[in-house]
Amino acid sequence: LQNLMKDLNFLYQDKPALYVKDNMPEGFEWMNCISSQECRVAYVRKADRPEDTLLVIANFAGAEQEFMLGVPYAGKYKEILNTDNQKYGGKAKTAAKAIASVDEEADGRENAIFAKIAPLSLVIYSYVPFTEKEKQEIARKKAEEVARKVAQQAKEAAARAKAEAEEAAKQAQEAAKKAE
User: Fold this and answer.
1) pLDDT at residue 83 is higher than 80
2) DSSP-derived 3-state class of residue 80
């Protein structure tokens, strides 16, 4: 518990989102406070710059939860504190990779992340904007996905048209036989 309190104190000193707009409504925003059945809440703390945003997720359930959560910005969310970490007596190790947001709506927001939270724990993520290279790669993948879907739709439309043409030819043959 001492290690956790020490780390929380360092975070408080280091992260402006925890103190800059402490008494202002624009310094806090619920991401999801309606998951009472799942015993989970998520919110963000904000400072003057989006890069200072912190995402906080608390799991009050006695079971691990995996879910999609709306986030305020497209980018990456890097774990900076996890109360289930081994150094606090938990089972988790610090996540090495940041979680990249996806362009999917969740919780009334345009971007979301897939999070996995240990039972009875709290995780704090720091927001990191996508680099230009990452944005280009995301746009390329999105364009490839759109092209793949368009090609698939064209293939399905051609197959339907072929089936309809064959059916029309069959009906025409049957009509011709009846006419003879």
Assistant:
1) yes
2) strand
